[in-house]
Design brief:
Structural class: alpha+beta
Strand order of the largest sheet: 3-2-1-4-5-9-8-7-6
Number of domains: 2
Number of helices: 14
Helix content: 40-55%
Order of helices and strands: HHHHHHEEEHEHEHEEEEHHHHH
Largest sheet: 9 strands, mixed
Shape: elongated
Strand content: 15-25%
Amino acid sequence: MEYEKIKRLKEEIKKIEEPRRTRYGNIRHKLEDIIIIGLCTVICGGEDYTDMEGFGIERESFLRKFLELPNGIPDSDTFRRVFERLKPEEVSRCLIDWLEITRDKREVVAIDGKTICGSGNEQHKAYHVVSAFVAENQLTLGEITVDEKSNEITAVPQLLDLIDVEGCIVTADAISCQKTIVEKIMGNGADYTIGLKLNQPGLFNDVKDYFDMFEKESSTTKSIEKDHGRIETREYFLLSDISWLEQRVEWCGLKSVGMVKSHVFKKEGAHTDTRYFISSLTNINEFAYSVRKHWAIENQLHWCLDVIFREDSSRARKDFSPLNMHVLRKTSLSLLNQAKTGRISKKKLMFKAALNPDVLLKILFR
């Protein structure tokens, strides 16, 4: 079974355009070997191209069980040059297709952007990557790279063209509260819950004023969470009778407006936060679920990339290098999430994979 999955991964990698000049006959290392060693290194906690060379040297006999390695282990410069030139969108699509994680129809697909803080240099600003993340199985469906956060508005419709969201609930922050984006979501057969702030001042003020006056007319539900010395109570309000809202006809699929009040109690004190939303949902429980699940992209993707994989400390800056490393980290995170490990943390699982090749195989070809 493992060897079938290895074979399938190699076949997917062959779909990637070779960035090196093959006509001169000086290609010493196979592209599939370079990418698979790179992925294995990141799964085991490696952070750069020197680590890839070191991992390959230490685990060469293990790697030869499923890689050809016709000229041994590539050196760090070879890894660097290849990952600088590979097209990240092709690497991403190849690895996502290979993962083949089973999806449910009524998933929450959270869309949000993250800046790779250390990726800027004299030639370009730090890359900002907009990702679509399935909250239920912690899978990244796709990503689009933009120059800066303000360009998310144009990137989100492009991202939605690349992924399958039919039957899902798409969630996004207020920067994506745009008529073109909700129209694209509905056109793709999905529902939406999107944050509402003052970038849509007329709509925001109307919704806020209505909830201030008629909060008790809304459907409501509540959740309570206790964790790390804090208690957070969330009250969810959804109003599906929006005949009073003049702008409703301008927003494709708009069927409700929502409000969430969060009350946080800690030793240092308490505070309350109120947020507003537009949605195509009419069920209060679905609305509450979609709001909660949206935070998965921050807690289970962006936080893990920064804390577990130390992405913001990465020194990869040239050309496509930081974006390809970003793809390897996200793929590694998906594999770690899918591994059957009980209560062991991701960091400890990565350490075990570095120590024991059999653990790495189980993660890589689960």
